[in-house]
Amino acid sequence: MILRGDLVHCPSLAQLEVLKDYILEVDAKGFIVHVGPASEPQSQTKLKSCVSPNVIPRGSFLLPTFCDLHLHAPQFLYQGTGLHLPLMQWLNEYAFKAEERIDGDPSLARRVYTRLARRLVEHGTGAVLLFGTIGIESNLILAECMKAAGIRAFIGKLSMDKNSRPTYIEASADSALTATVSFIDRCNALERDTEPHARRVEPVLTPRFVPTCSDELLHGLGRLSEERGVRVQSHMAEALDQVEWVRQERGREDIDVFEQSGLLTSRTIQAHCTFLDAPTLSHVAQKGTAIAHCPLSNAYFSAAPFRLREALDSGVKVGLGTDVAGGYDISIISAMRHAVTVSRMREGARHLECASNDLTPDDRKALSIDWKEALYLATTGGADALGLARGAGQFVVGAPFDAQCIRIIDEGTGAGIGPMDFIDDEMVGMDAWSLTDEIVEKWWCLGDVRNRVKMWIQGKEIARTWNSE
C-alpha cells in the first residue's frame, strides 16, 4: 500500500513534525518500509510502480493513532455517573456492582464491550490497556470484542482477594493466582493461529490496587510476571483516602508494597501516581516502570495533581489514560487537553507562590506542558510506555502503520469540517492552502469525532467515516 499526503507526528517530546506531501509505503505485514517527500527520486519510483496510490486529500492529514494507558472496560456501563463520591466509597457504590453485573451476564458483557470497542475506534484509540473484572469468561469476551474491532488491546483480569463486596471477591490468593494463569493461557490461545505481527490482544496481570490484594497474592503475581514475562498494571498513590488506607493497614507506602512484591518493573504501568514526589519519581524511572497520567479522573478523586513535568524531567515513561469511568470522557483528545490545563494551573500556582515570597520564578523549572508535548504523550510516549514495536507512534521505517486520517477542511469547498472554522480563508479556496503547526493546533484544541474519517492498525483499515452513521 502506498499513500500520498501530509503526515503529522511527534518523534520526541515537544517536537512536532509536519511532513508535507510525503510518500509512505506499507508492506504486506503492515510495517512502514518507505517514508519520504514525494519530490524525491525514490518516492517518484514508488509512485510510478503503484497503479492506484491512496491519496490523502488536501485539507486532511495522517496522524498516528492514540494510546489509552488506563481504562476500566466494565465501568463503561455507567460512564458519566457517580462522580460526586470519594474514591473508596465510589468503588463500593458503583464500580464493584457494575463489574459483578458484567461477570454474571455474558450477553450484557458482549453488548457493553462491543459498544466500547466502537467508541474507542470512533475516538482514534488504536491501543488500549484495559482493566476487566475478576471473571475469566467475561474477560475473554472483552478480548474477543477488541480483537473483532481490530485494535491493540491489553486485557487485565482483575486480581483481588480482600476488601471488596462479599459476592465480588476471589476466595484466596491461591485461587486468584490459579484463575490468572488460566486466563493468560486462554487469552493467548485466541491469537495462537495468528502470525505474531498481526496479533492484537494480550493478557496483563492486574492486581486492582494494594487495598484489595493480600501480600501473598501480590508476591505470587510478581513471580508470575517474572516467569511468564507478562505485563503488569495497577493503581499507585492515587487518592488521599487510598494512600492513608494503605499506610494504616500495611504501615508502608504502596510503592514499597509493589516493589517488595516484584511488581515495580519495566513491564509495569501504574496509573495516577499523584502522591509521588520528585525523588520517588526518579526511582520509578530507574525501575523502568511507566505511568498512565489520567488528569480528568485525578481532578475528581485525587487531592493533588500528578507531577507530570517532574516525571518527564526524571525520565519516567508517561502516557495518557482516560480512566473511564473515574474519568467520564473516553476521548484521548480530551485527556490531552486536560493534561495541559492541569499543568498550566500548577505553573500558575508556582508563580503565585514565588510572588508571595518575593521570589522571581525560574523559567527553567516551569511545570506546564504545551499541546505538542501532550500530543507526544498520546502517541509516541504512550506507545513507548506500552512497549509496542520499535517506532510505534511515529511515521518511520520499520514501525507498524497505525494511523488515523484527520479531515479538517473540505477540499472542494474550502469550508471547515465539524467544529473547524477558517472564516478568513473560506473565500480564497484551496489553491494557497498549506498545513501548518497552527492549523494542527487549531484541530488539537477544537477537533472532535467528525474530523476522523479513516483508521488503520498494522496496515489494515478498520474504520471509515463512522461520523456519517
From TrEMBL:
Coiled coil segments of this chain: none
Gene Ontology biological process terms from the UniProt entry: guanine metabolic process
Name of this chain's protein: Guanine deaminase
SUPFAM superfamilies (alphabetical): Composite domain of metallo-dependent hydrolases (SSF51338), Metallo-dependent hydrolases (SSF51556)
GO molecular function, one term: zinc ion binding
Record key words, sorted: Hydrolase, Metal-binding, Zinc
Cellular component annotations (GO), alphabetically ordered: cytosol
Lineage: Eukaryota, Fungi, Dikarya, Basidiomycota, Agaricomycotina
Source superkingdom: Eukaryota
Amidohydrolase-related domain: residues covered: 61-405
Cofactor(s) required for function per UniProt: Zn(2+)
Membrane-spanning parts: none
